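Hey,

The postdoc asked me to send both predictions to you directly instead of through the lab channel. I've kept everything plain text so nothing gets mangled by the mail client. Protein one:
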Amino acid sequence: MQSRKKYLLLQVLVTGFLKKMSVFVKYYGSMKNLDKKRQLIFGKNILRLRMEKGLSQDEVAARCRVTKGSLSVIENGGRNFSFTTLLALAKALEVNPRELLDVDFELEKD
């Protein structure tokens, strides 16, 4: 009888834990998707500004000291990068850093 009570208690605890974990995983997954979407929005803005300036990826990459491949990944929303890279991109594109961030990131959807 004692082992049956322990088993039932353990079952209740595990079930409660799994429910909480599923909520966390669902929330974390939606956050990751939203972050990825925001990176893509930012990358498209970088691409747009680069094209408007008539600059190649090689030119911008050389100006901000990243590889052409890294710049491509940023433009395609595949990389979360540092603040200093943001500043270097702004300088390379000859824009105020504010202009790089002047897009709708859908922040209200957090």
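Protein two:
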Amino acid sequence: MEDNRDLKIIVVGNSSVGKTSLIVKYKTNQFSLQTTGTVGVDMSIDKNVNINNNMYDVAIWDTAGQEKYQSIVKISSQNAHASLICFDLSDPLSLDSVASWIQFLKSEGPQNIQIIIVGTKKDLNVQYTQEQLKQISIAWKANFQDEFPIHLTSSKTGEGIQDAFLQAYDLGARAKYDLNTQQQQLQQNNKSFKISTSQLLRSQQPQNQKTEREFNELLRKTFKLLLILFISQLIMNETLKLVLVGQLGAGKTSLLQSHRQQEFRVHNAPTIGIDFQGIKDVEINGKLYDISIWDTAGQERYRSMTRMSLQNTNVAILCFDLSNPDSFRHIQGWIDFLQINCQSDIGIIIVGTKNDLPTFYNKEDLQKFLQTLNSLSQLKLFLTSAKTQEGIEQTFQYAYELGATIKMKSLQMDRSILFVPPEKLNKLKCKISKNNNYHCC
């Protein structure tokens, strides 16, 4: 029996427009006047949904509308197939924010994300006429070169909610089908290219009817494809992903600020969920990289977001507080967390922070303790201070170089099939020449 397909729907909009009530009404047919604001992001699963005669498990992501959670919403939009942008029909200013949410999804979300506009609280005093909504819809189409269906709903009466979600499901499923079709076409093209290359390598016993001209034509086409591939790789920078993890108060944000802005703040607000920064055109071992550094929250309640942020991570920087005698005992738990949720070739760096304060550890004892930890990868230790800059640049430089090394190793397997050793080509050409009575150099 075929497994259900996955579909991801994200619900966005300003704070208090009724996103959570909309989802609760759709999922449970219940309505409450007292709904607490979403902290960061929440998710529910709608299982076994029949969409166009295919079965799906639909993940519905409920996001916070406050500005301080914007980075979390940005991450949540990754791989989404459709989005409901909500505004409050009873608020005369609420509709103004929709255009910025469209722009947000167009710039930060997947390229083919489908967008549905949802007006909520229709049971209250509606501030918009049908003509106003029609004119605004025309303006959106002109600005974004796209049409967005509008649904007017009420979580209290249930009006319009089923239609809004069913259209989101339908458009999302179509978007996923189109994306899968494109990926399959790319895979087929790649497979055809690999087959042509492998055919060249397997031509050790060529057929008699093969001529040197046919061989040279095959050789020319193969190396033309290789040239296109290599040029495209030279044009585009490779990407590296680093993630900072550790307990609350370990100094992760200060470490990153010290590295990026060369500044130190005595009081940093704890990271809520996830934040990240991008650095472009960083030269590592003669090659340019675009680097993203993800700063994660240490609180247990945000652990699911940390787990989500670890996808495709090259290096994890695991921080602990040198001035806190209880901080180091969490290291093994974080290593286990990383090894469960990351790919096997992730690099892990252990970083002691706040070395400018009285410390409870010395480097020799820490090195000995690291050797007792259960880790699949070799652990490197750095002692740092965000206040004095001690060890900061050495830590990140090592992290960049380690990530680049891991990245190159992961690419070697794929690239190796593309290289045809010159000596093999010469031998192969000689054999063809002899079988067809051509002179061989």
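Summary for protein two, as requested: Residues 86 and 118 are 5 Å apart (CA to CA).

Thanks,
C.
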